[in-house]
Amino acid sequence: MTTTMQRQQRNMAGKELELTTFYVGDLLLGVDIHQVEEINRQLNMTPAPHTPETIRGVVNLRGEVVTVLDLRRALGLEPTIITEDSRNVIVNSRGERVGLLVDRIADVVIAATDQIEPPPANVNGIDGRFFAGVYKLESELVVILDVEEALASEGASKQTT
Predict the structure, then answer these.
(1) Do residues 111 and 136 lie in contact, with contact meaning Cβ atoms separated by under 8 Å?
(2) What's the 3-state SS for 2-57?
(3) What is the number of H-type helices and E-type strands within the chain?
(4) Rounded CA gap, 33 and 102, in Å?
(5) What is the rounded average pLDDT for all residues in the chain?
(6) Alpha helices of 60-140 — where are they, by DSSP H?
(7) How far apart are CA 116 and CA 160, in angstroms?
(8) How far apart are CA 22 and CA 89, in angstroms?
(9) What end-to-end distance do the CA atoms of the chain give, in Å?
(10) What is the C-alpha R_g of the chain?
(11) pLDDT digits (tens, 9 = 90+) for 70-106
(12) Tell me, what DSSP letter sits at residue 106?
């Protein structure tokens, strides 16, 4: 877990955290809603040569070139197969907009921060370093994604132009 996420969790003890949730395969992931700038359907990406395999390409969002990370690849899974449910979750990371390519969007979940548990060493075979915690819903778990750690995998956070 990054220092930023640890600091956020300490500051929010006893409060609620709004999570934008989405699926990567069967795994329900959540990201602090304050990190999400938008969710869009723009999936016509321009390949970016000489980038890590985690980078799916770039998109033009209202004149700004945004790098799109294949979140499945970043987590060590098979590449995303784009379907009509696929979306780009645009997050702000260190002042830079980055797209996270996900399989489908779920819902907004309000999590009591005192009920967020530490992440296990791995979830569905994915290294636990990518996760900031888990929150239990009635029927499934929301695994809270550490965006900075996911972007740091294989240099994914480096903007390509």
Answers:
(1) no
(2) CHHHHHHHHHCCCCEEEEEEEEECCEEEEEEHHHEEEEECCCCCECCCCCCCCEEE
(3) 3, 12
(4) 16
(5) 88
(6) 71-74
(7) 35
(8) 9
(9) 29
(10) 15
(11) 999 999 999 999 999 999 999 998 889 999 999 999 9
(12) E
Residues in the chain: 161
Report helix, strand or coil for 139. coil
Select from 3.40.47.10, 3.30.390.30, 2.40.30.170, 2.40.50.180 the CATH code of 3-155: 2.40.50.180
- Token pair of 129 as six digits: 């370093």
| Contact between 38 and 64 (Cβ < 8 Å) | no
Q: How confident is the model at residue 13 (pLDDT cuts 50, 70, 90)?
A: low
Over the range 32-43, which residues count as b (16 or more CB within 10 Å of their CB) and which as e? beebbeeeeeeb
User: Mean pLDDT across the stretch 63-69?
Assistant: 94
- Lookup: tokens for 112: 């009591």
Answer for the pair 71, 79: CB distance below 8 angstroms, yes or no.
Answer: no
Separation between Cα atoms, residue 153 and residue 135, nearest integer Å: 24
Max CA separation in the chain (angstroms): 46
Q: Is the dihedral of CA 125, 70, 27, 94 positive or negative?
A: positive
Domain ranges of the chain: 3-155
